[in-house]
């Protein structure tokens, strides 16, 4: 049971990142490969503020969000003028720069050694001890639920529709009066912020941060979750996060760690990307259907006029 | 050493590094020129090439002491590795990219990331994560020419990479197949109507790019050993080189590669950028270039049409 709880906890943490990635990639159609970078920023913000400055964990959350958002803006503003492929590389480069800086800025981040002894998160004296997993899991589920509903509302608002229009045809969207840059940058900032939140919770779950946790692999896993579940569908991202985490911990769960090589899961992630793109590019659940009128769709004549 | 000699010393080092970047950048730029997508797996093909070269070299060399035979067997290993990677490149294209040729732009890119992951982790699975040494096929003690110290490895890199670049330029510029490649890159549909077998051209592009990557991979592995993630950072930097020069442009990739090699060497040696931040230089350059001249130094500005 314990490993299953670990899977669920990581599902929640990664689902937060996947939700952000979905807004950027699924709605905006921009391939960003630096969720790991924002994840790291969030983690380190919490780690440094709680250990060096003795802040309360909950106070560090807004700071983590703010730092990720500012970096999201700083990287998004110049690079979002680029087309898909360039953007992927530029964001990948940004993720590597973050890790490089964390590795080398010894006075602040303690370099490759990382920061240990991060205090546990607490509300009114009740500590969310990561070793007693149930309470921690409930806290994460609540956070994930809040983010899920916020992002879903957002995606169904003017912003979500604008992003979808930009994704389908940027020139057409711009000529309809949509400020494409504004919406793309906002999506990027929001996606970054939610990854920062995920990072903060990762820090209080592991209670230590090391640069080795925030590799390119994390960005790929998050991307896999979104692709597997279905781009443009937030519920599907959570499902994707669960499946990917289940695959990751399958050897531990079944006690087959000696039989299954450590690289098997990464190879499966790679296969998932290739196979899904060829046979089911819309993912398991597919894109969420929009109904702009807000009414239930009726069969018959109405459909014909609508289209 | 006089300051002039120091300058030429760094120039030599930069040119060697840049030569390798250029070889690998060519693969990115050729594929982009024709298919308009980034072959993310290119860096990992380089890694496979390094391993294959190492295996072939060890097999051919046996226990022979350094001498003419080791050098010949190294060249033979290089040819074997280039052929192997050419076939691998064509295979990957057929399986993972061809079905997506008419799909949305994001699809082949994601598929390529998947292939890259399969290759690097497959290599770690089969050959282990520890790094393995690819031995020098010659005595690699530095020689001093005109006050500049240069290793036989650097001489080999300079000769091989520049020979390859000249050969490729001639092939693309003068041969019939090269003409077909240029036509396909300009307009795939029209090229097809003119009787060019586009599938053959695309396969050939992948074969040439992958073969060059294999050669580049072996040249790098001589200095940095073989390990499963060898291709990741090198591949990324070579991509930066391709973008800096103007992606899709063959002479641009060469220029970009050499430029990047020079900037990295001079950045660390002259500007005093700490060694730990060496890998960051390439990405900073990338972001600056993308902001100031997104089409690259030699690239053409493409007008977006509705």
UniProtKB/TrEMBL annotation, chain A:
<keyword id="KW-1003">Cell membrane</keyword>
<feature type="transmembrane region" description="Helical">
    <location>
        <begin position="7"/>
        <end position="24"/>
    </location>
</feature>
<feature type="transmembrane region" description="Helical">
    <location>
        <begin position="30"/>
        <end position="50"/>
    </location>
</feature>
<dbReference type="Pfam" id="PF02653">
    <property type="entry name" value="BPD_transp_2"/>
</dbReference>
<keyword id="KW-0812">Transmembrane</keyword>
<dbReference type="InterPro" id="IPR043428">
    <property type="entry name" value="LivM-like"/>
</dbReference>
<protein>
    <submittedName>
        <fullName>Branched-chain amino acid ABC transporter permease</fullName>
    </submittedName>
</protein>
<keyword id="KW-0472">Membrane</keyword>
<feature type="transmembrane region" description="Helical">
    <location>
        <begin position="57"/>
        <end position="77"/>
    </location>
</feature>
<feature type="transmembrane region" description="Helical">
    <location>
        <begin position="262"/>
        <end position="279"/>
    </location>
</feature>
<dbReference type="GO" id="GO:0015658">
    <property type="term" value="F:branched-chain amino acid transmembrane transporter activity"/>
</dbReference>
<feature type="transmembrane region" description="Helical">
    <location>
        <begin position="185"/>
        <end position="207"/>
    </location>
</feature>
<keyword id="KW-1133">Transmembrane helix</keyword>
<dbReference type="InterPro" id="IPR001851">
    <property type="entry name" value="ABC_transp_permease"/>
</dbReference>
<dbReference type="GO" id="GO:0005886">
    <property type="term" value="C:plasma membrane"/>
</dbReference>
<feature type="transmembrane region" description="Helical">
    <location>
        <begin position="134"/>
        <end position="151"/>
    </location>
</feature>
From TrEMBL, chain B:
<dbReference type="GO" id="GO:0015188">
    <property type="term" value="F:L-isoleucine transmembrane transporter activity"/>
</dbReference>
<feature type="transmembrane region" description="Helical">
    <location>
        <begin position="68"/>
        <end position="92"/>
    </location>
</feature>
<dbReference type="InterPro" id="IPR001851">
    <property type="entry name" value="ABC_transp_permease"/>
</dbReference>
<keyword id="KW-0029">Amino-acid transport</keyword>
<feature type="transmembrane region" description="Helical">
    <location>
        <begin position="104"/>
        <end position="127"/>
    </location>
</feature>
<dbReference type="Pfam" id="PF02653">
    <property type="entry name" value="BPD_transp_2"/>
</dbReference>
<comment type="similarity">
    <text>Belongs to the binding-protein-dependent transport system permease family. LivHM subfamily.</text>
</comment>
<protein>
    <submittedName>
        <fullName>Branched-chain amino acid ABC transporter permease</fullName>
    </submittedName>
</protein>
<keyword id="KW-0472">Membrane</keyword>
<dbReference type="GO" id="GO:0005886">
    <property type="term" value="C:plasma membrane"/>
</dbReference>
<dbReference type="GO" id="GO:0005304">
    <property type="term" value="F:L-valine transmembrane transporter activity"/>
</dbReference>
<feature type="transmembrane region" description="Helical">
    <location>
        <begin position="194"/>
        <end position="221"/>
    </location>
</feature>
<dbReference type="GO" id="GO:0015808">
    <property type="term" value="P:L-alanine transport"/>
</dbReference>
<dbReference type="GO" id="GO:0042941">
    <property type="term" value="P:D-alanine transmembrane transport"/>
</dbReference>
<dbReference type="GO" id="GO:0015190">
    <property type="term" value="F:L-leucine transmembrane transporter activity"/>
</dbReference>
<feature type="transmembrane region" description="Helical">
    <location>
        <begin position="280"/>
        <end position="298"/>
    </location>
</feature>
<keyword id="KW-1003">Cell membrane</keyword>
<keyword id="KW-0812">Transmembrane</keyword>
<feature type="transmembrane region" description="Helical">
    <location>
        <begin position="155"/>
        <end position="173"/>
    </location>
</feature>
<dbReference type="GO" id="GO:0015192">
    <property type="term" value="F:L-phenylalanine transmembrane transporter activity"/>
</dbReference>
<feature type="transmembrane region" description="Helical">
    <location>
        <begin position="45"/>
        <end position="62"/>
    </location>
</feature>
<keyword id="KW-0997">Cell inner membrane</keyword>
């Amino acid at each position: 049971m314990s490993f299953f709880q670990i899977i669920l906890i990581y599902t929640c943490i990664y689902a937060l990142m996947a939700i952000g990635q979905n807004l950027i990639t699924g709605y905006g159609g921009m391939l960003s490969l630096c969720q790991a970078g924002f994840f790291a920023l969030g983690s380190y913000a919490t780690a440094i503020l709680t250990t060096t400055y003795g802040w309360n964990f909950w106070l560090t959350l807004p700071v983590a969000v703010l730092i990720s958002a500012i970096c999201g803006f700083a990287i998004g503003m110049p690079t979002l003028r680029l087309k898909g492929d360039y953007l992927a590389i530029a964001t990948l480069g940004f993720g590597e720069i973050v890790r490089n800086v964390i590795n080398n800025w010894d006075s602040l981040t303690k370099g490759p050694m990382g920061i240990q002894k991060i205090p546990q998160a607490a509300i009114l004296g009740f500590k969310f001890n990561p070793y007693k997993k149930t309470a921690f899991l409930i806290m994460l589920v609540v956070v994930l639920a809040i983010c899920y509903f916020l992002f879903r509302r957002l995606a169904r608002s003017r912003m979500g529709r604008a992003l979808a229009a930009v994704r389908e045809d940027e020139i057409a969207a711009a000529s309809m009066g949509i400020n494409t840059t504004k919406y793309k940058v906002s999506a990027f900032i929001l996606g970054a912020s939610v990854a920062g939140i995920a990072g903060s919770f990762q820090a209080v779950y592991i209670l230590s941060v090391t640069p080795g946790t925030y590799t390119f692999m994390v960005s790929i896993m998050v991307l896999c979750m979104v692709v597997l579940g279905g781009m443009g569908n937030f519920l599907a991202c959570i499902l994707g996060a669960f499946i990917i985490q289940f695959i990751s911990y399958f050897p531990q769960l079944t006690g087959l760690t000696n039989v299954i090589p450590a690289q098997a899961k990464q190879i499966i992630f790679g296969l998932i990307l290739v196979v899904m793109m060829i046979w089911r590019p819309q993912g398991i659940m597919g894109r969420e259907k929009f109904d702009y009128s807000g009414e239930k769709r009726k069969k018959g004549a109405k459909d014909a006029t609508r289209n | 050493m006089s300051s002039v000699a120091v300058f030429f010393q760094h120039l030599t080092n930069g040119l060697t590094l840049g030569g390798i970047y250029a070889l690998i950048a060519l693969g990115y730029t050729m594929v982009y020129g024709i298919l308009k997508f980034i072959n993310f797996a290119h860096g990992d093909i380089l890694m496979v090439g390094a391993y294959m070269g190492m295996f072939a070299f060890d097999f051919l060399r046996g226990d022979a002491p350094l001498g003419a035979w080791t050098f010949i067997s190294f060249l033979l290993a290089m040819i074997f590795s280039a052929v192997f990677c050419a076939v691998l490149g064509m295979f990957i294209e057929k399986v993972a990219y061809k079905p997506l040729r008419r799909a949305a732009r994001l699809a082949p890119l994601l598929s390529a990331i998947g292939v890259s992951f399969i290759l690097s982790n497959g290599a770690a699975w089969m050959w282990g994560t520890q790094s393995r040494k690819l031995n020098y096929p010659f005595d690699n003690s530095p020689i001093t020419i005109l006050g500049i110290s240069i290793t036989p490895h650097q001489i080999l890199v300079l000769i091989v990479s520049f020979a390859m670049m000249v050969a490729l330029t001639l092939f693309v510029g003068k041969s019939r197949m090269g003409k077909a490649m240029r036509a396909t890159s300009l307009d795939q549909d029209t090229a097809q109507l003119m009787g060019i077998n586009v599938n053959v051209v695309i396969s050939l592009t992948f074969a040439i790019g992958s073969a060059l990557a294999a050669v580049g991979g072996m040249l790098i592995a001589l200095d940095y050993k073989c390990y499963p993630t060898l291709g990741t950072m090198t591949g990324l930097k070579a991509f930066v080189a391709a973008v800096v020069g103007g992606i899709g442009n063959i002479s641009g990739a060469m220029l970009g590669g050499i430029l990047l090699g020079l900037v990295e060497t001079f950045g660390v040696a002259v500007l005093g950028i700490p060694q730990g931040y060496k890998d960051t230089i390439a990405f900073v350059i990338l972001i600056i270039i993308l902001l100031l001249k997104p089409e690259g130094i030699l690239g053409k500005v493409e007008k977006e049409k509705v």
